[in-house]
């Protein structure tokens, strides 16, 4: 496939419906075709977000929601996965109906459950549930995008007796309408975001129980940038501008959000995602009823092409000046190690051509800028960085490469502990071409920046021990994993793996601060995301040596996703400031879709 023949898309700003005391949006999810592959190749059918009042805004990734500190945002998230005749659309990708999932065809009684089959079923072809989560937001439970608060489109021809919404949808709809006076219509959820957190790079994506991996892979993701307040910098200090509503064509942007994802394509341009467990490990059965191995679900999937802001291997023209990039690892399972180099095929590890100055992580600005030669980003992690092209001559070509593995990441160093991604494909991300300077750069050099005051969390009242676990088949030797689970530890330190529907074991008090000890008992690193909060990494302790090490300098700020390494304990300090029912989970999407997710409740049980 050709590389570097299309321009990087800079996501425009999502238009509002109105500003009646708050910023009001109606954002739908639709099916459409988009040119992800180079010109001359077929277009790709995707699912993505857009303003229902502006059909030309539907795009993968979504247009960016720009939010201001202290100003509330209301979003009506509408499931519009219907055809031109209003009938529901089946999924673009193979849905494994044997998992514990939303299960609309189970009806009210069996929704949000693991169905029972007497023989191995094919992929589910019914209507598709969605629910949108604002990742990193501190919001009330009814606006968090809880996995069991999903809903189907208001479509014609829905199967008789199917559940049209998840177990918590009605409860949250009533609570939301009571608080805000805005009812939820069929096929919609209306979420309210207070925006009282630190200025930061947030993102939104689907979170429906058991099919998050497929809905996100189909295109359901976008940026939500929270600006202003006491934890932001004054305009003009950092490179800009960023996109704004009403920008004339040709506007040059020096602040750009960039989401990196891996995808695979068929020759007709359609998205490819494995239709069988056999493509993961060669296991071809028996499945139902002969074993406990799911027939379609794979523990991880790594695509063969890199897609950046919705295009394969794009190119960005930059001037010899400073740029602010907000990087997001939006991959399902792939950890990225990003580096700017001169030769995209250089032997790995390659020498960096330019440093990257990291200013922020998921929870906003760090205590101080950190100069780095490379960025390690696990799925869902973000890095707010400045790259200074000032000294680079015009016509120079530079490349953003990926040295993370084409396999599960377990830590270590490329070349000695793991092989880098294929330099010809997934080892390349995008290209920079330096053009002549078109204007004066008045931004502050990153080495001279003073970032907003950082106030760490106070002392913790409780330490809670939790575990990360893998389970192999209970009946077939050496076949697995069949599930990945979170859990607790008993008084002897023995893990107690727990499924999604086990009773809640994490029940912090409202306003409390806790330390969560995450004991990783698997062979891989897991990006652990806790909803509703931004936390601090305290330290990591290797097992069994007991050696503790402080978080890396770029992890010294607030985060909502922490990489928990194998054979180690990762400690995070968390303050719980919102009452209600939330979730914590691994952000390898294949893992969270097969039990590596647990509910927690803040406040009275």
Describe the protein's architecture and organization.
- The protein is mostly beta strands.
- It has 5 helices and 32 strands.
- It has helices at residues 107-110, 169-180, 212-217, 278-281, 589-592, and strands at 23-34, 44-51, 65-68, 73-79, 132-135, 188-193, 200-206, 221-227, 255-265, 271-272, 305-308, 311-312, 315-318, 322-329, 336-341, 356-361, 364-372, 375-377, 382-388, 397-402, 428-434, 462-471, 483-489, 495-498, 513-520, 526-530, 536-542, 548-549, 561-564, 568-575, 580-586, 597-602.
- Strands 9, 10, 11, 12, 14, 16, 17 and 19 form an 8-stranded mixed β-sheet that branches. Strands 24-23-22-25-30-27-28 form a 7-stranded mixed β-sheet, with no helix packed on it. Strands 13-21-20-15-18 form a 5-stranded mixed β-sheet, with no helix packed on it.
- It is globular and about 65 Å long.
Largest sheet: 8 strands, mixed
Fraction of helical residues: under 10%
Strand content: 25-35%
* Overall average residue pLDDT: 97
Q: How far apart are the termini?
A: 54 Å
Apparent shape: globular
Low-confidence stretches: none
Estimated structural class: mainly beta
Rg on CA atoms, Å: 23 Å
Number of helices: 5
Strand elements, count: 32
